[in-house]
Amino acid sequence: MDPLSRCDGSILLNHEGSERKFDVSKTLRGFKVIDDIKAEIEKKCPKTVSCADILTAAARDATVLAGGPYWMVPYGRKDGLVSLAKEAQLVPMGHEDITSLVEFAGLGHSFRERAHTIGRASCGSIQDRLFNYGGTHGKPDPSLNAQYLNYLKRKCRWSSDYVDLDATTPRTFDVEYYSNLPKKMGLLSTDEKLYTDPRTAPLVNALANQPSLFFYQFGVSMAKLGNVQCLLGHEGEIRTNCNFVNSKY
């Protein structure tokens, strides 16, 4: 999980040029769930609970339901008024080298905030690994496990298809994604590099071999990321519909 934008519900705004409309956001799901929660809350407590707070709490509760850790969620965020597609471009896309990820960590994140367990990626993001790695005229990435490569080719016949980040236990919150990296079964090239680069390999090994450490660190990281550039007090607003700012709804 690589959130970078403000924790103000900007990803929920649904208009041309918003983060939600950008290509990199196509794998995101659950918008209707947030809309349903917001509608019910508005019936009971109108203009009281922000979409940003709902999104943060829903992420925590969904993690718990999937078998993951619980963490405290402080409330009081306001919803932002702006959502720009260009901000979604700042999130690492899975093609970067480790140095680029180190620079991303310098923005206030760390490798510990890079957690892949439940989720999926677009097949378009890994096409080069499967069919033309490094301009090799049709050859795949040699670092991929042969059986895993065949699996991915079957799953990704079209770039518009999607594939699970964890091929082993895709719907269970666990450390299998990290355990798969030494087996050359990392979906994104950046995650494979996390295992092979000496700067980050110790962390990958620790997360793969100590589930309790992964669970603890995930909760700590999500609590931290849930408070990035929050809007409080007179900043922002409490949307009545998470898809639009109040003045346009």
What's a concise summary of this model?
By secondary structure, the chain is an all-alpha fold.
Task: Tell me what the structure shows.
With 249 residues, the protein is mostly helical. The chain has one domain (10-119, 165-248): Peroxidase, domain 2. It is built from 10 helices and 2 strands, in the order H-H-H-H-E-H-H-E-H-H-H-H. The chain has helices at 31-44, 51-65, 85-88, 98-105, 127-131, 146-155, 176-180, 189-196, 201-209, 211-225; strands at 120-122, 162-164. Strands 1-2 form a two-stranded antiparallel sheet. The longest helix is centred in the first third of the chain and has 15 residues, at 51-65. Residues 1-5 have low confidence and may be disordered.
Strand count, sense and closure of the main sheet?
Answer: 2 strands, antiparallel
Q: Give the overall pLDDT as a whole number.
A: 85
**Sequence of strands across the biggest β-sheet:** 1-2
Radius of gyration: 19 Å
SS-derived structural category? mainly alpha
Q: Mind telling me the CATH class?
A: Mainly Alpha
Count all strands and give the number. 2
Helix content, binned percent = 25-40%
Named at the architecture level, the CATH assignment is Orthogonal Bundle
Low-confidence segments: 1-5
Give a quick set of tags describing it.
mainly alpha, disordered N terminus, Peroxidase, domain 2, 249 residues, two-stranded antiparallel ribbon, 2 strands, 10 helices
